[in-house]
Design a protein that fits this description.
By secondary structure, the chain is mainly alpha-helical. Helix content is about 50%, strand content about 5%. It folds into 2 domains: about 50-240, Glycosyltransferase (Alpha/alpha barrel); about 260-409, Alpha/alpha barrel (Glycosyltransferase). It has helices at about 5-15, 30-45, 50-65, 120-140, 145-160, 190-200, 210-230, 230-240, 245-260, 260-270, 270-280, 290, 295-315, 330-345, 360-370, 375-385, 395, and strands at about 85-90, 95, 105, 170-175.
Length: about 400
């Protein structure tokens, strides 16, 4: 797969089957139209996109070396006795120094207990999702079958193969020693699986990804979504009034669309205005439940990003969450307006941020809003941001509303 020069990338793009020309991929969180346009520009010989393709290929070659990943690789067995059940420990809970055995654990918001790394499922799922995303993006833009083949192997290991697959539930996610064996809050840990649904859409036409693979993976997500909707943990997370509720919706809608259950997606999206925006955002744009955290910037940005994802998804059903506003002025735009001067560096962040303030997360929100409202103030704000480097993946995908390393869980 190594090439001597960027021209090889362009030539390979030109060889991609003509039947795919003009058809955007079946994705939900990614901007399929932008991606197909970028791929067409590559076919037409636009060398300005060669740097991000080269960087993407490099990332994909690294992803070829990792994994496979499986929940069965952990050394600790869940309370069910079945290693196919996902298991993780709450990150912000620590042994109580006043108790000989440390139990029950006590909360230290924003401070990660390194004990959580003894349970490997969360890291394994994150690495699997990241690798699959890089491999499938590289396949989409280059047509290299080995990238698709490796992505298929990772997906089959995690979701399909009887000896390694994950059971479609999170009964034992984010357990707290001395208090419980799992919580609804743990559902946020499968947030990366929304990206996996998009990644699978990028495998369309790959020789190594069969109809049987597609059906089996969709069946897994259908069963997991049913668990999210019907289980006590799922109902708890759906009722959350902060970023956890937002990302429950992002996942549920993505999974519903992926499994061809649009009625579920439409119902959830129809409730976002009153259930999320109206309750989470103040008329001045503050998000109180995020601002009370020790990483107030990270969580505020994270929640707005999730609301933007929902607004993009809602357009499929002609539900306009971008324009949704309560009589007293609560809206996604108002929350972004509150964050914008801090993302551009015009004002210092006045709230707690224990792991250091970095504006990058807010910058992608402004870029995405600039695309949504090209004639509005965000277009001018975007000009104040540092320019994207020539090899940034966003040149191929459009502004990606993706998680960053500051995000808490």
């Amino acid at each position: 797969m190594q090439r001597n020069h960027i021209g090889g990338v362009i030539l390979l793009i030109l060889a991609i089957a003509g039947s795919a020309v003009g058809a955007p991929p079946r994705v939900f969180l990614l901007d399929g139209d932008h991606m197909e346009s970028a791929r067409q520009r590559l076919r037409d010989g636009d060398t300005s996109l060669a740097p991000p393709v080269k960087k993407l290929e490099q990332s994909a070659r690294e992803a070829m070396k990792v994994g496979p990943f499986s929940v069965t690789q952990k050394t600790i067995t869940p309370p069910s006795g079945d290693k196919h059940d996902y298991m993780s420990q709450a990150p912000y809970w620590w042994p109580d120094p006043a108790k000989p055995d440390g139990l029950p654990y006590i909360r230290k918001d924003g401070l990660r207990n390194p004990e959580i790394n003894k349970l490997t499922d969360r890291g394994q799922m994150r690495e699997m999702s990241n690798a699959v995303e890089q491999l499938t993006l590289a396949y989409y833009f280059t047509g290299d079958e080995p990238f698709a083949a490796r992505a298929g192997e990772l997906l089959r290991t995690w979701f399909i193969d009887d000896s390694t697959r994950m059971n479609p539930n999170l009964e034992f996610a984010q357990g707290i020693p001395g208090i419980n064996t799992g919580r609804g809050i743990g559902i946020i840990e499968t947030g990366s699986l929304s990206n996996v649904c998009d990644a699978i859409g990028l495998l369309a036409g790959a020789k190594s990804w069969t109809d049987a693979d597609e059906r089996a993976t969709r069946d897994w997500f259908k069963r997991y979504l049913a668990w999210m909707l019907d289980s006590p943990h799922g109902k708890d997370e759906s009722a959350a009034k902060n970023n956890h509720g937002t990302y429950y919706d992002v996942q549920a809608v993505s999974f519903a669309l992926f499994t061809e259950q649009p009625e579920i997606a439409k119902r959830i999206l129809g409730e976002v205005g009153a259930k999320r925006i109206a309750l989470q955002i103040e008329p001045g744009g503050q998000q109180p439940l995020e601002l009370e955290r020790t990483k107030a910037w990270s969580y505020s940005v994270m929640n707005v990003r999730g609301l933007m994802q929902l607004a993009n998804l809602a357009k499929r059903f002609e539900i306009d969450l971008w324009a949704y506003e309560t009589p007293d002025g609560r809206s996604i735009r108002k929350a972004l307006d509150y964050l914008a001067p801090h993302a551009t560096g015009e004002q210092p962040w006045p709230h707690e941020q224990i792991n250091g303030f970095r504006p990058e997360g807010g910058a992608v929100l402004i870029r995405r809003a600039s695309k949504q409202f090209p004639d509005g103030p965000y277009h001018e704000l975007a000009k104040k941001l540092p320019p994207l480097p020539p090899d940034a993946l966003d040149h191929l995908t459009g502004p990606r509303l993706v998680a960053n390393e500051q995000d808490g869980r």
